[in-house]
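Input record, target 12 of the design panel.
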């Protein structure tokens, strides 16, 4: 008996945009720290902007269905 192979169609989403959501705010905060002798109180504006961005992105929610889910449904129905 041979191995059963499955040929699924997959789409690789671009994950880069998801990981760089608050990158600019983090960059500003981390650059502010050495300029102010690592005193976080002097970088309160940048820290507040970073916290606001993280809060905003945390409340955005998750995507419930993906294109890979729908492609797998189509492949299953096509095999029937």
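The sequence produced for target 12 reads:
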């Amino acid at each position: 008996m041979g191995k059963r192979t499955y040929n699924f169609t997959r789409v690789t989403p671009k994950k880069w945009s998801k990981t760089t959501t608050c990158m600019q705010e983090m960059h500003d905060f981390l650059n502010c720290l050495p300029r102010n002798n690592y005193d976080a109180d002097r970088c309160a504006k940048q820290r507040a902007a970073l916290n606001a961005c993280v809060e905003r992105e945390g409340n955005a929610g998750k995507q419930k269905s993906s294109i890979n889910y729908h492609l797998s449904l189509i492949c299953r129905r096509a095999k029937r």
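The CA atoms of residues 41 and 47 lie 9 Å apart.
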